[in-house]
Each structure stands twice: as C-alpha cells, then as structure tokens.
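Open question from group meeting: does this chain pack into something compact, or does most of it stay loose? Before anyone orders reagents, we agreed to write out a predicted structure and look at it together. Recording both the input and the output here so the notebook holds the full record.
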Amino acid sequence: MMARAWAVVPAAGSGRRMGAATAKQYLPLRGRPLLAHSLAPLLSCSRIDAVVLVIAAGDRRWQEAVSPGPRILTAPGGVERCHSVLSGLEALADRAAEDDWVLVHDAARPCLSSADLESLFAEIGNDPVGGLLALPLADTLKQADDEHRVVGTVPREKLWRALTPQMFRYGLLRRALADAVEAGEPVTDEAAAMERAGHRPALVAGSGANLKVTTPEDLALADAVLRSREEK
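Structure tokens returned:
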C-alpha cells in the first residue's frame, strides 16, 4: 500500500520582480487569485491528505484563494523559501510518518496539470527517496562574462529545468532541509537539499506549461494556458 501524501505550498513571498503592489500569489488570474489555481490540482487529488499553506505573518488574503477546511493547514513563513518549507514540514510533525510523501509546490505555478501530478505518483510512488517534475532543456545555453559577452556554449545534454511539485519522503526531506538551514546554506529547492544530504532525486518529465509566474509576461502566458484548457 502506498504511503500517505501531504503537500506544502510556500506562499509567504512578496513577488518583488512582478513590480505590482499585490503579492503575485494574489494577482487576479481568470477571475480568481493566482494562488487558487496553484492549489486546485493538489486539493483535487484524492491521494493528498492535506495541504499546508505557508503564509506571511498577518496574511489573511489566503482565504480569498481557498476556503478554510480540514484539508487546509497553515504555517508561518520564513526569510527564504527553505525556511518556509521547513516550517510547513514542521507543521506536519504530529500527522506525517517518516516514510510519508510530501509534495512541495510553488504558489506561483498555477498551471500544474492533474496528468503531471499523476505521473509523479506513478513513477516514484515506490522510490525510497523521491524526485521532482522537470523538463529537459531544449534551448542552446550560453555562458556569459561580467560584461554579458558570450564566453562559451554549455552542452545541454543531461540538463533539466526543475519544476514543482518536488516529492520526497517526509523524514528525509525534513532532516535534509534542517541541516541545510543550520549550515547557513539557503538551498533554492528541495532537490538541492536532498542532493546536499547525499541523495539522488529522480527526474520525472513534466510539461512546459507548468510555468512559474515571475514577470507580467508569465502571467499572460499562464492566462493563455488556463484559457486553452477551459475551451477544450
């Protein structure tokens, strides 16, 4: 029998690069806050017992994105993503078993498909460590100097772009992130923490539509993706 699964969604950031007065997870997208779209596939997945939403102190706007209920837990955000995710994991301490799964998903990825989520469970559901959705790089990569001049071309073979959710065993991920934070190494994703701990996360091919909204242009792309799904 497959272990239970939980989700953690760090949503305490301000989204400074969007250049908007509103934190990007609350920007309107198809008539709803962006965060609502990011949470929807997780809450629709019967495999996931509960979602921990990690929010900034005093934030009440999350209730515009999702109604409070038994499957929604909250935890306080931290300085960096890794601190927020660790806070979310600690909120599960009395609920999750060591071998349970935790799926960490970006609050600013509103286009996760149920098919990609099912692929993650299907391909690594019996893995001792876990892995992440990722996309093999298709573009030619250039290495630049301080003056933004090309100094070389980087081979793209075996290079992947990390997406989310990233799905790992609860106990392993909690220890790996705690060790990284204690060492003063603010890892930028959960896979990096697992790599630092000596693990080798599995890569599961995901969809390029699972984009992260960072700029206004990304928001327009996300709108187009969601609109196309509504029209099918």
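Observations to bring back to the group:
Helices lie at 34-44, 62-65, 81-90, 114-124, 170-182, 190-196, 216-230.
The chain has a mean pLDDT of 94.
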